[in-house]
Amino acid sequence: MVPTNYYLILSAVLFGLGVVAFVFKRNIITLFMAIELMLNAVNLAFVAFSQALGKPDGEVFVLFVIVVAAAEAAVGLGIIILTARNRRSLNVEHVDLLKL
Amino acid sequence: MPILENLWIIPLLPLLGSAINGLFGAKWSKPIVNSVALGSTGISFLCAVEAVREFLGYYGTNHKAWVKPFFDWIVAGSFRAGFDLQLDHLTVVMLLVVTGVGFLIHIYSTGYMAHEEGYFRFFSYLNLFMFFMLILVLAANYVLLFVGWEGVGLCSYLLIGFYYLRKSAADAGKKAFIVNRIGDFGFMLGMFLLFRTFHSLDFATVFAAAAKPEVAIEPMGQFGVLTIACLLLFVGATGKSAQLPLYVWLPDAMEGPTPVSALIHAATMVTAGVYMVARSHVLFTHAPTAMYVVAIVGCATAFFAATIGLVQSDIKKVLAYSTVSQLGYMFLACGVGAFGAGIFHLMTHAFFKALLFLSAGSVIHAMGGEQDMWNMGGLGKKIRTTFLCMLFGTIAIAGFPPFAAFFSKDSILFSAYNYPENGKAFYAVGLFAAILTSFYMFRLIWLTFAGEKRYDEHKVHVHESPLNMTGPLMILAFLSLTGGWFAAPALWGGKDYFAEFLSPVFGAGESAGAESSASLEHILSSVAVAAALAGLVVAWRMYGKQVNRGKSEGVHKLLYNKYYVDELYAAVIIRPLMWLSTNVLWKVVDAGMIDGAVNGVADGAAAVGDTLRHTQSGNTRSYAVWVVVGAMVLLGIIFWPILHPALFGGVR
């Protein structure tokens, strides 16, 4: 049996990778994937705790997160496609119309 | 006793008239405005007469003043100021003078103001004035009196500035208002002091407490509580009644329409100070120092104003200074303890001065607005009724028997003569002022009505005034003749009925000396008549035969420029105040400190916002960094208890 700590450390590493990728990459699709990575890192932590504590709560949470992530993917990809069409670019630096 | 139970109806009627005319009069024709204004004052006068009749019956059985509370106005702790109205013999005199003379002047105004703009506005103000004046004389406590006091000041301001498009009129209104504020400040301080001393401002309570035998009369030269309170009240009276040093507003108030000068600035409002002092006579008799100050100020004003009146060329200015001078007589009477004589002169003055002003208004009306006497002359033949009425007024004010002021001025001078503290000096100054009075009034008569005409007949169409103007003149002329006859029997050893009428208020003491020194009174009366005659003769010598304006220099110039008092006040008070207001209060305090604080706060907020603005870069990744940093900080705070010993524990 793999100790819970290992799962958590893996989860933290995956989350950290997601954060770093989100902050340093410019391609919107990459950012999107970084978000998915962070979500799934959290999912991993939930599942690990669920198994360690012997309670189903964490697994239920994971199902919710997957549903939300799926909805987000649908909306987010739609936005990305529109952005790409309008701007002919996927560079997030160019999407800054809200700037003062 | 229907009216006596409902005394409020007497002031309420003019208030209603004022409100109706003020709100709807603009669209109404003159007859409707007239009937509202005259109706309300006329019915008010009839109610006053009926109230007086009922009161005299009530007094006959109960021997006390009629006081009726209507509702509580201010109640705070132990302080109570109610809407309480009071009727006693002093109020009776004031009530009849105010409503009676007021009604006559309303009638006159329908003629005088017939061609003026703002006809309804004029009558609305005039009725409002009647309301406040009636509140003033009917009030049963100082607070309600102060309501009337301020209210008449407001109406005075409105009516002086009636021709508000003329700058001099607007300025004169402001001047009257501001000078009165100074006096009112003293009056209010006096009220506070009275409340602190007697824990009430009701006349009945205060005077009963002050009249108790254990309240000592504060000796001459000492400034006890009562003396200071009386002096503060008198400061208020100097403002309202135009005494030295606050008289400067009254001559300027002549910018208002002439009926206003007659009603407010001669017959009624300016006598409010005299009324107030007479009303507070219980306090004043306990403060001889204050009485002495009142006498000195009154005497000085009577003389000072009379000298200025000698040389004025504006017919209304002469009468204005004459009013200031006569008010000085009234205060002289109050100061020497002859409150009854002061009120007597107040009443006769209301008759003859209203008559003089209205006659002057009739002259101005006839001359088409000309007020300078040097541009008149020879009017006696053309406007005979006005001339005769004005002559009546002049003889009355000069003090020839059997006209009104002969009796009232005589009793004032007699009381002054018998006053123990420098009474002879007061008498001498008063007598000299009487000579001056006679002189300037007959000078006015000669310059205006006698001699050759000094105006261009092709430009000025001199015409007699209509009956609604001459009618009130004739009634007032009759009153100026007969108004003093109440006191006439005293001359041949009989009773002074006026003093006797007021004795329930002022006590019988003051007329006690009259019988014992009847021969002295005869001598003094003869001297007074001789003084009036002297003034008449001098005026005739100078202006009776041929009129020569001459050059104004020396004393004449000093008098013509009113002793440069206005210039003095401007230099000593107004200009330093203006400088202070402009250079300190405006440029430093207002522009520097207040605006600085307000703008500083705004500028600070703008600067902070400008700095924070840069975080809103629109760059998604920088927002992400902020989220990460925020999350880290949050985590740090949550896990601080664990992190703290782990990070720093080893050092200790």
What can you see in these coordinates?
The complex is a heterodimer of chains A (100) and B (652). Chain A is 78% helix and 0% strand. Chain A is mostly helical. In chain A, α2 packs antiparallel against α3 (57-87). By secondary structure, chain B is mainly α. Chain B contains 27 helices and two strands. In chain B, α4 packs antiparallel against α20 (467-482), α9 (225-240) packs antiparallel against α12 and α18 packs across α23. The longest helix of chain B is centred in the C-terminal third of the chain and has 49 residues, at 565-613. Chain B starts with a helix and ends with a helix.
Number of strand elements of chain B: 2
Summarize model confidence as the mean pLDDT of chain B.
Answer: 89
The count of domains of chain A is 1
For the largest beta sheet of chain B, what order do the strands appear in spatially? 1-2
- Main β-sheet description of chain A: none
Query: Element order, helices and strands of chain A?
Result: HHH
Residue runs with pLDDT of under 50 for 5 or more positions of chain B: 510-515
CATH architecture descriptor of chain A: Orthogonal Bundle
Q: Calculate Rg of chain A over CA atoms.
A: 17 Å
